[in-house]
Amino acid sequence: MQIHQQTIQLKPYKRGFHIITSTITDALPQIRQMKAGICQVFIQHTSASLCINENADPTVRQDFEMYFNKTVPENDPDYLHDDEGPDDMPAHLKAAMLGSSVTIPISNGRLALGTWQGIYLCEHRDYGGQRHLVVTAWGE
């Protein structure tokens, strides 16, 4: 069994949902040598998240942003945590809803994503800055 791990520092992304699949595969080329395995991607932040969804039509990502903004609005007077601005607490809630990691099978040297699937960085802050991911792949 092989185990490989790489920490990735992403460039700052604007608020929204961004496909980062190729960033993940480029950062851990050892995946190409694995016949079968698992790849886990973990984000080291509490105001951004990861998920897997549609990789072709950009309107899906726009609709994700619209939905989460309606579901978890800014400036709710009941929020107690607002030290870093009106997008702070909503960003934490959105990240908790989507999660901090994704796990993908590796098959014949590739992430075994479906035809229309991609890995999203879900940036929930207006100015989230650089984000850090830990990518771990293990297999044979």
Automatic annotation (TrEMBL):
Pfam families: YjbQ. InterPro entries: UPF0047_YjbQ-like (IPR001602), YjbQ-like_sf (IPR035917). It comes from the Bacteria. PROSITE patterns: UPF0047. SUPFAM superfamilies: YjbQ-like (SSF111038). Belongs to the UPF0047 family. This is YjbQ family protein. It comes from Mucilaginibacter segetis.
